[in-house]
Q: What sequence folds into this?
């Protein structure tokens, strides 16, 4: 393969709703260009970019998939992205590595929530977007309907540049409005070959209609051209294309194309359009002027071969036998095979042996990557997603990709206790590979908690854990980390006396407990006067109280936010020791805490929910059925933002329930807010459950 300069490269992320035909389109584009030798299919498990066993088994994309198509002296880097919400992290990462997006909308289902979300994300980044209506060969395919839908639901700046000849089973050609030519595909062959013809007579009216609309739209984005047009002058093809390209960069126009990836119809036209209309990596600089950090200084990053190297890691994937593969986008400088680079994020050197580019699962070694290109490398020592590779002289850190926040959490239990360590390592590796998959240990409930974007996301990670690390685990509803506290004051005695043969044990203390404000924790005050307890034993009383407090008095949960004062006691010159005073502390806790009106505290989360207004009523109603307290509502980007505080115990399954309530259009962030007293009926239930568990434990032992 020859070397490509930034001006000869296009970096394109392929985005859209789940099952919209993205993977099939990438396969078709790479195939018709000749860069991929085989026309793969998602259905057969042979698609170029769905090569992971988890993807083949399920028939949808999970990881972003790298591919390329060499076309018209240009290398088009294609990043296939997953459409399902659960794997959105990789779609965001794919966009971050690209300079523009193909937004795929199926001719049958049209615009869905995933289309909307990814289109908005691309626009938010300032990327030019090209719409592709996919699956034109399918029954009920309807180009016009999809065009209107995109117009009303996504943007009224969408404009067809290509129109189909025939639809559904009759789909057999496309008319390009710029070239004013038709491509009539050869029936019975699936390689996308066509005859270029004049516009067929039966399509003339349709052509005229769309052609005028296109030229009018382009002219409207440029004053000089508009004047020209209004004077009745002919707008040339080159003028129209140049105008379109500029308008796309400013997001004033979004062209629309149509294809059938199954038949490879229309794929060549999409490739040519990417070359012609999408900005190259150098041109993108004016749009995505990048800044990085060198120490505390902000530095500009230029897409220039002679500038210092700065490459951003947008994905890592670990595979058995291969190790970790790191995917990066070169934002500036030139990288040569064998170069040593510096990971400024982790302050470590890395050697780039076997510098490669990826075509699906295959890696092709290259000698050099120029500014603007995308590459990959296996077996780096310590480099992870979101790190920047640069040089020791200019240790730059590029801005981080902001990944979506986790939506659900579950407890993970190893099927086999002996596997626990391996599972821990595996989970951390999976997190490195996918930052939206998080792992932490909850010391209060003694559970390993895995969090992600949805149930499917966690399920897939369990499969990866099994395949890559050979260990199995199950997930279950996580335990709630309740706590206890006291509402009243009381005092009492803890007296420990034991006489068993030789030397005895004796410790005796009087303590007073009082509530402290929420979050204040525990404090201990020594009020002993006159040495009724010798100095050296007082810390033991404190220790005893703290140890007993961990197990609470109501339901076995830690008792928090109280003050303990030790104000009297007695001792024995021979039998007293630290151990006996610790026991006295434990006994004092049990005696006194129970008298201080103990109550159960439950953990609460604060939610920030973004919902389209149509679903406001449902979302609010549901929150109140979950004992939610609404803090306020305000207008948001796409509807209303609701802020609410909801007990964690009521939030299990919230992510899926809000998805189904709002047809996947709402999203939320959730973070721990604090503890509050649980209502009586909730507390009673928890206390009863604890009593039952204890009883069962006693029966077992
Ligand atoms: N008839 C027909 N079927 C298609 C076409 N494109 C895709 N399909 C089928 O539609 C289904 C979904 O296609 P994919 O390419 O996997 O869609 P995707 O957008 O990558 O889906 P996710 O990875 O889940 O986001 C598969 O069964 C494809 O075989 C097409 O042009 N014509
Ligand atoms: Mg896919």
A:
């Amino acid at each position: 393969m020859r070397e490509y300069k930034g001006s000869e490269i296009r970096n394109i992320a392929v985005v859209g709703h789940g099952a919209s035909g993205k993977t099939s389109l990438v396969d078709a584009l790479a195939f018709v260009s000749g860069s991929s030798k085989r026309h793969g299919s998602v259905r057969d498990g042979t698609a170029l970019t769905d090569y992971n066993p988890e993807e083949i088994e399920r028939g949808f994309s999970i990881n972003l998939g790298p591919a390329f198509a060499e076309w018209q002296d240009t290398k088009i880097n294609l990043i296939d992205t997953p459409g399902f919400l659960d794997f959105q992290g990789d779609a965001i990462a794919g966009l971050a590595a690209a300079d523009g997006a193909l937004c795929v909308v199926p001719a049958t289902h049209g615009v869905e929530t995933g289309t909307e979300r990814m289109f908005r994300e691309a626009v938010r980044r300032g990327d030019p977007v090209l719409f592709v209506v996919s699956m034109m060969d399918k029954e009920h395919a309807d180009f016009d309907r999809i065009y209107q839908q995109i117009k009303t639901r996504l943007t009224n700046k969408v404009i067809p540049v290509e129109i189909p000849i025939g639809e559904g089973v009759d789909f057999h050609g496309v008319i390009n409005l710029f070239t004013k030519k038709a491509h009539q595909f050869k029936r019975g062959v699936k390689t996308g070959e066509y005859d270029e013809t004049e516009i067929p007579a039966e399509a003339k009216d349709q052509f005229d209609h769309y052609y005028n609309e296109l030229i009018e739209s382009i002219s409207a984005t440029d004053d000089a051209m508009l004047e020209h047009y209004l004077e009745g002058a002919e707008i040339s093809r080159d003028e129209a294309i140049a105008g379109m390209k500029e308008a796309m960069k400013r997001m004033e126009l979004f062209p629309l194309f149509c294809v059938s990836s199954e038949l490879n119809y229309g794929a060549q036209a999409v490739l040519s359009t990417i070359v012609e209309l999408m900005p190259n990596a150098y041109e993108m600089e004016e749009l995505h002027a990048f800044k990085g950090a060198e120490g505390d200084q902000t530095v500009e990053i230029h897409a220039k071969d002679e500038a210092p190297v700065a490459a951003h890691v947008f994905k890592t994937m670990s595979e058995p036998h291969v190790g970790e593969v790191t995917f990066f986008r070169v934002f500036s400088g030139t990288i040569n095979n064998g170069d040593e680079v510096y990971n400024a994020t982790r302050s470590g050197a890395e050697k780039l042996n076997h510098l490669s580019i990826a075509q699906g699962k295959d890696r092709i070694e290259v000698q050099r990557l120029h500014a603007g290109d995308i590459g990959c490398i296996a077996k780096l020592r310590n480099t992870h997603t979101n790190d920047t590779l640069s040089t020791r002289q200019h240790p730059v850190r590029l801005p981080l990709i902001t990944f979506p926040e986790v939506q659900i959490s579950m407890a993970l239990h190893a099927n086999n206790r002996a596997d626990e360590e391996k599972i821990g390592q595996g989970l951390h590796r999976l997190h490195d590979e996918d930052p939206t998959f998080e792992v932490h240990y909850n010391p209060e409930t003694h559970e390993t908690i895995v969090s992600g974007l949805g149930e499917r996301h966690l399920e897939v990670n369990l499969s990866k854990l099994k395949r890559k690390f050979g260990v199995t685990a199950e997930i279950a509803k996580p335990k709630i980390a309740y706590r206890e506290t006291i509402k009243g004051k009381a005092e009492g005695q803890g007296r420990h006396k034991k006489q068993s043969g030789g030397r005895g044990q004796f410790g005796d203390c009087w303590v007073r407990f009082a509530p402290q404000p929420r979050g204040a924790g525990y404090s201990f005050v020594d009020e002993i006067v006159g040495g009724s307890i010798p100095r050296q034993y007082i810390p033991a009383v404190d220790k005893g109280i703290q140890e007993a407090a961990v197990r609470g008095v109501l339901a076995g949960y830690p008792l928090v936010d109280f003050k303990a004062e030790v104000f009297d006691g007695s001792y024995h010159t021979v039998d007293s020791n630290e151990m006996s005073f610790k026991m006295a502390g434990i006994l004092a806790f049990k005696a006194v805490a129970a008298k201080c009106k103990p109550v159960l505290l439950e953990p609460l989360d604060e939610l920030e929910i973004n919902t389209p207004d149509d679903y406001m009523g449902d979302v609010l109603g549901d929150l109140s059925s979950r004992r939610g307290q609404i803090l306020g509502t305000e207008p948001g980007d796409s509807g209303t933002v609701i802020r609410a505080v909801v007990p964690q115990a009521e939030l299990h399954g919230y992510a899926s329930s809000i998805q189904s309530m709002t047809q996947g259009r709402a999203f939320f962030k959730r973070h721990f807010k604090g503890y509050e007293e649980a209502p009586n009926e909730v507390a009673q239930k928890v206390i009863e459950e604890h009593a039952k568990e204890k009883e069962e434990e006693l029966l077992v032992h």
